[in-house]
Design goal:
Number of helices: 3
Number of strands: 11
Strand content: 15-25%
Mean pLDDT: 74
Largest sheet: 7 strands, antiparallel
Length: 225
């Protein structure tokens, strides 16, 4: 092969290699940007960013309750003053409509109708008592203790008889806690009992309640023996 032909062949081969390199660079363009970010499902599950919950504005007016009666809209400070409490002793809850309310216990469940005092011989915790009958004065001597009743939401049921007030509270509510806005009712003799968040209350007239005992975090009453 003539010398000139060999030179032309080498030049052609070099040109072919150069063109192949250029084509390869063009085809691989944009692949040097790093690996694509994996989808959220491949990152260990859903990640949710939650901002800090805003505090309750002290100037905001809420539905205010005094002695379980709605008295209008008021700020926390004003509602606490009407209840004769410090502002930090006032509970805030949610009523049946979902609106924020303020009350001494945030419990808006009204007391049920009083049960009849003249009770039949019911087995404890089984037989209902007709709550539509009017209450009669109690004929039980104080020394024998009172009859302990639980209100189930539709009727009264006998829990025990002859025990003390503290025993009745323990039988009704020991180990039971309620959420803000809820209340459980019971009865010992002529005293209405109401379990609300963090305490049990008593009322001699089924209307005005005062604290009987505080409840701890395990839903017990260490102050009652």
């Amino acid at each position: 092969m003539p010398k000139d032909n060999r030179i032309l062949f080498l030049i052609g081969a070099a040109a072919a290699v150069l063109i192949a390199v250029i084509i390869g660079l063009l085809l691989s363009g944009g692949r040097d940007e790093g690996p694509a970010e994996p989808p959220p499902a491949a990152q260990g599950g859903l990640t949710v960013a939650v901002a800090d919950a805003p505090g309750l504005d002290s100037t905001r007016e809420l539905r205010c309750y005094v002695d379980v009666q709605f008295v209008g809209m008021a700020t926390l400070t004003d509602c606490a003053r009407r209840n004769g409490l410090a502002t930090d002793a006032l509970d805030v809850g949610v009523d049946a409509t979902g609106a924020l309310v303020a009350a001494p216990t945030a419990s808006l469940t009204p007391p049920p109708a009083l049960p009849p005092v003249e009770l039949t011989d019911n087995s404890p915790g089984t037989a209902p008592i007709d709550s539509t009958q009017p209450a009669q004065p109690s004929a039980q001597p104080a020394s024998t203790g009172g009859q302990c009743l639980r209100y189930t939401g539709s009727d009264w049921r006998v829990v025990s008889s002859g025990g003390s007030l503290n025993q009745c509270v323990q039988e009704l509510y020991a180990g039971t806690c309620v959420r803000p806005g809820e209340a459980l009712y019971g009865r010992w003799g002529e005293t209405t009992l109401r379990l609300v968040p963090r305490r049990v209350e008593q009322s001699p007239d089924n209307n005005r309640f005062r604290t009987l005992a505080d409840q701890d975090r395990s839903c017990q009453f260490p102050g009652l023996r």
